[in-house]
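Give me structure tokens for this 535-residue protein.
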Amino acid sequence: MSNRLGESTSPYLRQHADNPVHWQEWTPEALAEAVERDVPILLSVGYAACHWCHVMAHGSFEDAHVAEVMNDGFVCIKVDREERPDIDAVYMNATMALTGRGGWPMTCFLTPDGRPFYCGTYYPKETFLNLLSAISSTWRERRGEVEDASGRITAELREMAAGLPGNGPPVDAMLCDGAVAAVLRDEDTERGGFGGAPKFPPSALMETLLRHYERTANRPALDAVARVGAAMARGGIYDQLAGGFARYSVDSAWVVPHFEKMLYDNALLLRAYAHWARRTGDPLAVRVTSETARFLLDELACGGMFVSSLDADADGGEGSTYVWTPAQLADVLGEAEGQWAADVFGVTPSGTFESGTSVLQLPVNPDDLQRFDRVRQRLLFARRARVQPDRDDKVVTAWNGLAITALAEAAVALENPGLAAAAQRCAGELLQLHLVDGRLRRASLGGRVGDSAAILEDYGALATGLLSVYQLSGEQRWLAAATGLLDTALTHFADPARPGRWFDNADDAEALVLRPGDPLDGATPSGAALVTEAL
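Here you go.
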């Protein structure tokens, strides 16, 4: 037995290929081995840009003693949540139900037929070792309790899935107006955004409020977009040198980000800022639209398509690529220019991040824009000499679909035909590689498409992207391809028993302990929302 992740199409799984743990991918063979050995499955789910995934890997999975305990007592399966969101969804629901919270890395213990009986997230090494010992003892000595618990948990998950709403009130103006009013009541009018820390970019809400404003001319909706759009663009969550947004802010004022940069966040935010720019002509919205589009093309491009993410960590420390001290600014720019830059970007001796470093912000526009652009270019040049974050080069269908739509809308907002060409180039390459025998695949790496079937969000997001480039170009091939994807979605993902409800995986996909079908949005719109927009 050995580690089997070396040939994976997932960079996240390849990161673990040298672990002494005998990792396997989720396959029928791995599940059959658990049955044959009569041991539990240890399922670990994460993704390449995840900071705490790296911490647990370094602390536990690279440790020979921990690996020995894992190999002796379990069949160890690694899953990239971005490549297999269906598996992630099933076991994240179990983790949330059992612990009240979720996150990655997700650590689940399953019976050989996939029923969860104990779930958690990150564990420090000693805690993890104690847990492994306790799980193994329980499996050997109290098997009946494990079977009972896994049966109850699985039954509850299926009941929860069956109880998801299939029919609701009619979607009319009154319903939408009430939803917008509820959103606005939750706004943080002082700092921008909704709710407290941690704060995630509310791209879907920005789009919703802009569409509501277009229909009703309700000024508070537009004002809320302007507040959060400006707060994020001026905060540390936005890369003030190269453009692009980090995944979220750990504080309520958008100052300190969790530094990973995801394609899906930047695609959704590019669309929202492009819409804001097109609607109002706001100079900040126009600038951020242009810079975020450039970030996609400069930092995440892979041929004509786009890769998944940039890591949070570099050189062993989170955010080390991006943060500055006053002395570092002076080293690059000289004393006078360095002090000016420190004032402009809010870099202080005490710092806003760790060890006296600061995340760059832009509280107000500088008085000299030419000087500002010159300083930014010099700092960016110096930053590129630092150790850079790793890049997850996996190409995900849904996220590229979001990027196609965003680039198409940015092309119109900025009157930039180059962005329109980029959208069409991505659409063409994605169809050529990811559409296999009439069905979409979820992801590819280095020009090799993976085996994982696409899920509902892939069909919905790509169809919308294709319809966006059709609107730009008028070329019938985009309309035909989008229609074909939607026909497939209707055939294989719609719930025939409950009109209006969708499953996230196809009716002929691998059977899991339950068939996921969550209509709620998360970091990205739900598959149901995406396919509904496409339709």
